[in-house]
């Protein structure tokens, strides 16, 4: 069970990273993959963007905070799974 959680976390982590990198290239989020990643990643990133304003008006650090929170959530999920399944 723990390996499934790790695999899903790793996939979602890389989805966030790719989505962030796509923002650096013009119109890359306009294609099918960009739109698909947006639909999967934006619901998770949006609450962080509402709380954390961009630095200097352009630098968005909310994805970094979102990844850290995701890492803590995965750690908590590992603890819960370990308590349930031993």
TrEMBL record:
<keyword id="KW-1133">Transmembrane helix</keyword>
<keyword id="KW-0812">Transmembrane</keyword>
<protein>
    <submittedName>
        <fullName>YggT family protein</fullName>
    </submittedName>
</protein>
<dbReference type="InterPro" id="IPR003425">
    <property type="entry name" value="CCB3/YggT"/>
</dbReference>
<comment type="similarity">
    <text>Belongs to the YggT family.</text>
</comment>
<feature type="transmembrane region" description="Helical">
    <location>
        <begin position="64"/>
        <end position="85"/>
    </location>
</feature>
<dbReference type="Pfam" id="PF02325">
    <property type="entry name" value="CCB3_YggT"/>
</dbReference>
<feature type="transmembrane region" description="Helical">
    <location>
        <begin position="7"/>
        <end position="25"/>
    </location>
</feature>
<keyword id="KW-0472">Membrane</keyword>
């Amino acid at each position: 069970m723990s390996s499934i959680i790790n695999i899903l976390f790793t996939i979602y982590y890389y989805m966030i990273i790719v989505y962030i990198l796509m923002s650096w290239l013009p119109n890359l989020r306009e294609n099918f993959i960009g739109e698909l990643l947006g639909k999967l990643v934006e619901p998770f990133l949006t609450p962080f963007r509402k709380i954390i304003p961009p630095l200097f008006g352009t630098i968005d650090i909310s994805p970094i905070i979102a990844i850290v929170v995701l890492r803590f959530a995965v750690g908590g999920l590992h603890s819960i799974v370990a308590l349930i399944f031993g």
